[in-house]
Write the structure tokens for this entry.
Amino acid sequence: MNAPRLLRAAGWTALAAVLGFAVVWAFMAYLSPDRVLDFASMLQMCGIPISR
């Protein structure tokens, strides 16, 4: 009976991670646009495709 509760917690955690990623990305873009490109390059090196 705890499976729905666990799935809901996992969903909220995933949503928080995505929101946190977007906030960090926007803050980096505000401070220094070059850092965003460096971060995108690092993600691509890790195998996560990023398109412009």
